[in-house]
Amino acid sequence: DAKTTQPTSMDCAEGRAANLPCNHSTISGNEYVYWYRQIHSQGPQYIIHGLKNNETNEMASLIITEDRKSSTLILPHATLRDTAVYYCIVRARGSNYKLTFGKGTLLTVNP
Amino acid sequence: DTAVSQTPKYLVTQMGNDKSIKCEQNLGHDTMYWYKQDSKKFLKIMFSYNNKELIINETVPNRFSPKSPDKAHLNLHINSLELGDSAVYFCASSPSDRGRSEKLFFGSGTQLSVL
């Protein structure tokens, strides 16, 4: 699976959009980009995933560059409850069935 | 209702003891997992079961033995506990066959402290 690079930490003001970048320059054609988050003292939570098209759901939007070497997770209106570690994971579907978590980005939403 | 539930939430024990962590999911999923999160917060997969069949074993010491009595349960038994086993253990499940689903649902974790 391709390696991902994320900033260690980011800050965002409450009510503003939070844009979390992820670099995956070695991604291959059959690999998807997944985002999970882990709120303190809880288990990880699935957010969104995509292959090459932009995706949106009730939680967030995922923007993947045309060359697929990077992506951005967008939380349109961040709240204090969005403070968490956000993990960007690249994995081929139907591969060896495991998600490999990196260090992630600690997003702190400030009032 | 909790979708993936683990018990106990906290477990404090002495080195050398044997302990078990239980996990149950009421989502009707086929695949269940155990992940370990160490003190540096790295989250690593340990095991995966699909319909009670082991499909992933990530070179975990054989002191760790998962047991799946049915597809809704995946328990983790640990023999001869060591200091390095101290971590948070997360159970997870996913809905599709052989773990191909992108959506894992995690439990709230069991914090194991070995003294």
- Radius of gyration from the alpha-carbon trace of chain B, in angstroms: 13 Å
Number of strands of chain A: 9
* Chain-averaged pLDDT of chain B: 90
Largest sheet of chain B: 7 strands, mixed
Principal-axis shape of chain B: globular
Percent range of helical residues of chain A:
under 10%
Number of strands of chain B: 11
The greatest interface between two protein chains, and residues involved on each side, is: A-B, 23 and 25 residues
User: What is the makeup of the main sheet of chain A?
Assistant: 5 strands, mixed
- Gyration radius of chain A (Cα, Å) is 13 Å
How would you sum up the global shape of chain A?
globular
Q: Main attributes?
A:
heterodimer; A: 111 residues; mainly beta; four-stranded antiparallel sheet; 9 strands; 47% strand; B: 115 residues; 0% helix
Summarize the entry for a quick read.
The complex is a heterodimer of chains A (111) and B (115). Chain A is mostly beta strands and 111 residues long.
Tell me about this structure.
The complex is a heterodimer of chains A (111) and B (115). Helix content of chain A is 0%, strand content 47%. Chain A has strands at residues 9-13, 18-23, 31-38, 45-50, 55-56, 61-64, 70-75, 84-92, 105-110. In chain A, the strands form 2 sheets. Chain A has a 5-stranded mixed beta sheet, with no helix packed on it. In chain A, strands 2-7-6-5 form a 4-stranded antiparallel beta sheet, with no helix packed on it. With 111 residues, chain A is an all-beta fold. The relative contact order of chain A is 0.34. The model of chain A has no long low-confidence stretch (mean pLDDT 92). By secondary structure, chain B is mainly beta. Chain B is 0% helix and 55% strand. Chain B contains no helices and 11 strands. In chain B, strands 2, 4, 5, 6, 9, 10 and 11 form a 7-stranded mixed beta sheet that branches. A 4-stranded antiparallel beta sheet of chain B has the order 1-3-8-7, with no helix packed on it. The N and C termini of chain B lie far apart (33 Å). The chains are: A mainly beta (111), B mainly beta (115). The A-B interface holds A 32, 34, 36, 38, 41-46, 49, 85, 87, 91, 93-94, 96-101, 103 and B 4, 31, 33, 41-45, 48, 55-56, 58, 90, 92, 98-100, 102-109.
